Amino acid sequence: MDVLAGLMQGFGVALQPLNLLWCFVGVVLGTVIGVMPGLGPPATIAMLLPLTFLMNPASAIIMLAGIYYGAKYGGSTTSILLNVPGESASVATCIDGYEMAKKGRAGAALGIAAIASFIAGTVGVLGLMLIAPPLARVSLAFSSPEYFALMALGLAMVVLLGGESMVKALLATLVGLWLAGIGTDLFSQTSRFTFGRMELLSGIDFVVVAIGIFAIGEVLANMHERGGAQAIPVPRGVRNLLPTMQDMKDSRFAFVNGSVIGFFIGVLPGAGSTIASFISYGVEKAVSKHPEKFGHGAVEGVAAPEGANNSETGGALVPMLTLGIPGSGTTAVLLAALVLWGFKPGPLFISENPAMFWGLVASMYIGNVMLLILNLPLVPLFAQVLRAPVYVLYPVILGISVVGVYSTSGSLFDVWLLAGFGLLGYLMRKLDFPSAPLVLGLVLGGAMERALRQSLMMSDGHLSILVSRPVSAVMLSLAVLILLIPLFGKFNAWRLKALK
Amino acid sequence: MKALRADFWSGLALGGLGAYIIVVASRWEYMGQDGPGPGFFPLWYGIVMAVLSLMLMVSSVTNKGTNAIDWSGARSAFVAWAAFSVMVASLPLVGFVIGFAALTLFIVLVMYRKPLKVALITAVALSAGFYLIFPLALGVKLP
Amino acid sequence: MKKHLLCAVLLASSTAFAQGFTPTRPVELVVHTGPGGGSDVLARAMVIMLEKEKLLPVRAQVTNKPGGGGVVAAAYLAEKKGETHTIGIFTGVWLTNPLTSNEAKVSLKDLTPIARLLLEPAVIAVKADAPYKTLGDFVNAAKQKPGELKQSGGSITSRDNVVRQQLQKATGTRWQFISFPGGGERIAALLGGHVNMMVIEPNEAGEHIRAGNMRVLAQVNETRLAAFPNVPTLKEAGFNVTPVPQVRGVVAPPGIPRENVAYWEGVFKKLSQTESWKKYVEDNQFEDAYQNAAELTKFYEEFSNQMRGILQEAGVKTVR
């Protein structure tokens, strides 16, 4: 189907007043959900399914998709303001975003996040529109060795996030890998590290760990017995509450980087927005002229991951709509919704349902615009949240954390885990262990182990499969290089010192 | 000296974890008929963990650097954490709204030494806020 | 005085209840997957059908209790002893988990059976450009290169592997099994040419088969499905293998009164006879396999014994 003709048809569907309304409802709902940590798009979409039967399917999918990418916009809000990641993809945003907030630049951070999300989201839709079917076929060539290499590359980025001590960063990563392994092993169905507890059979939910370590750890670290009224400065004046032209200039590469990396990683079923955001962050830091600013409030450090996790939505829809293969929890629910309405997502979906597909694509453009318009003016408003006195803010953070965690699983055990990880987060801060690597290890650990074992099964036990295939060989070499860079740096420094 | 000890202890703790992982993982199947078993991956990262912990401990002893660990505020942090844990423990009994109100009261009163009136208002307002937003407006269950 | 009055009222109302149970508050339908998972989708469809066919006087809502592949949901139901307004959707894993997992302390025997509703058939599929036109071709190829061909599937206790174990035993061949966590990834592995064959439910692979990307070699079923009239069943293809069914049905917490059980039984029996149900079954390529509570109990035993034997032969450690 001719792309332009399809798009025309799509806008014809998407611009109908009813569908515009549903799009708006979807993005607003999505933003609200994104802001609440723990509450995620899959559960919300599932709850709204009965409602969707009253609408026609095109409107319904427009609304549900709006929730999907709206949530990505919203997720950055709590990450930046409260250091509470709204979902796994927002963890990377916490790193520099919260630092910016602490320096009084919360408004700029939120603004850049919105802008980056808009640009990347639009690129993602463009990609979906233009290259979806051929890209899907190419993505099938990506298999376990490549996934393993990709995860290894992501973990090698840990070195760039590592701060001072590489040893500590690696140790944190390993703890993350261990945490990821808690649960039932997929292949053999043996339970590992579950200490006989039924609640640990499916492993520890990422949300629990991330909120515990980041949010609660932060609150604990800032407890003083005599209260300051306001811990975080919020500058006055609208001018200071939005990103400056310098910020935009600094972020130009980040916009591109986030959009492209996010989209392509999103296309791979099984690789998600978390790894997209971290790789994008890592790449941005690697090419930056002043990498030491990262982790202390570099605006590109917000723009890159935020962009990545938004264009990932476009990417993730590629396998879902062209192959019927969901790439993430949210796309799985969207897929289930399509099936419930009587559609059969698969290779023939686009050609047999052009109105649905193009209507969805067009509405995504519109949705992105709506979100930008919604979010930018709200930025100064959100930034005011930080004006609240600390003794109000911190209990709120604790409360939101508990509610967020409980809402995902309904289990009190998880709330206890939250408390435990909160303590761990505090200790890590005091002992100078970086927390981002632990979180990354947790997110990637399961998938990485599976990919490695699958690869070895495919090659009958020969590790060479990882380097005999071109794509995985390239990525693994990059990973190794990245790990070696700091060693070169130290070697150089030692050499210079010796020469003196 | 305090700094060195800190890294040493964390290295020791992590080394202990690494050793534990190695022991448990070696009890599982390392290489099955079809491929690597459940013990494969944990064994390897357990080994790396143990090695790195050792490196950390060694470097903490030989390092001449002095990055002191700032233990100030630790007491308040632990107290706050204890309060939080008490709240979590009380959740099955009194539910979120009351538990949270109590925690807020404690934090404002004890941690920040604000007057009782302020503490009460904050506690009530915030708990009410949570109750309104979450179960009523969004339909999210509170513990 | 008030107390006596209260007792009298309660007694009166309970005898009224004893005559026939009807739900008076929303009914909870427990599933063991998260939103979007197999049981969740089925449950939501059921809720819609129950409403449409007016089979329940109250609302029904789905409660997700994911974890441990059914263990958490089963434990949740077991805890709700005597609760009359909660039921759960079980699948075959609820039966196999207790066999292999120490933590799975609750088996279906501890819960109240209500009905068996569906069987999920499966087909054996290969990529469309593979050199195998029949299952026999695949098996012969496996014979020539033992342990080299690969199958993608779920965990080793899943039906995919059970079929593999049975076929391997019946033909004396061997091929590898590579686990992937989701149907999507398994299909991607097949379509990408990284594995040679898979056992897959027709509703998951349906579109790919229709598009011509996948070819079906055989069906794992006793009789031919309507959607695959030209594909031989395992027995027809010459393999002496009794397919182990993948089931879905309804259970309730333990300790509920008999009228309650009878009520649920009635509801689901009626559901299985409605047009919307029949259409749902057909659309999703399931097989209607209604069994009432008594038959279901017998089925548990047969199924558990069959699975135990197969798992032990496959080298999986069984704990019960």
Q: Which percent band covers the strand fraction of chain B?
A: under 5%
Task: Report the end-to-end length of chain B measured between terminal Cα atoms.
Answer: 45 Å
Secondary-structure element string of chain A: HHHHHHHHEEHHHHHHHHHHHHHH
Helix content of chain B: over 70%
Give the oligomer, counting copies of the same chain as homo and different chains as hetero: heterotrimer
The helix/strand order of chain B is HHHH
Number of β-strand runs of chain B: 0
Report the biggest beta sheet of chain B as strand number plus sense, adding barrel if it closes: none
Question: Strand-residue fraction of chain A?
Answer: under 5%
Structural class of chain A: mainly alpha
**How does the overall form of chain A come out from the CA principal axes?**
globular
The largest sheet of chain A has its strands arranged as: 1-2
Structural class of chain B: mainly alpha
How does the major sheet of chain A shape up? 2 strands, antiparallel
Over all CA atoms, what is the radius of gyration of chain B?
A: 24 Å
Uncertain ranges of chain A: 226-230
How would you characterize the overall build of this protein?
The complex is a heterotrimer of chains A (500), B (143) and C (320). Helix content of chain A is 75%, strand content 1%. Chain A is mostly helical. Chain A has one domain. In chain A, helix 1 (3-14) packs across helix 17 and helix 6 runs parallel beside helix 14 (300-323). The longest helix of chain A has 34 residues, at 106-139. The N and C termini of chain A lie far apart (69 Å). Mean pLDDT of chain A is 80; it is low at 226-230. Chain B has helices at 2-27, 40-62, 74-111, 116-138. Chain B is elongated, with a radius of gyration of 24 Å. The longest helix of chain B is centred in the middle third of the chain and has 38 residues, at 74-111. Chain B starts with a helix and ends in a 5-residue tail after the last helix. In chain B, helix 1 packs antiparallel against helix 2 (40-62) and helix 3 (74-111) crosses helix 4 (116-138). Helix content of chain B is 77%, strand content 0%. Chain C folds into two domains: 2-119 and 245-313, 3-Layer(aba) Sandwich (D-Maltodextrin-Binding Protein, domain 2); 122-220, Periplasmic binding protein-like II (D-Maltodextrin-Binding Protein, domain 2). Chain C contains eleven helices and eleven strands. In chain C, strands 2-1-3-10-4-11 form a six-stranded mixed β-sheet, sandwiched between helices. In chain C, helix 6 (159-171) links the parallel strand 6 and strand 7 (176-179). The model of chain C is unreliable at 14-18 (pLDDT under 50). The chains are: A mainly alpha (500), B mainly alpha (143), C alpha/beta (320). Chains in contact: A-B, A-C, B-C. The interface between B and C is small, with 3 and 4 residues.
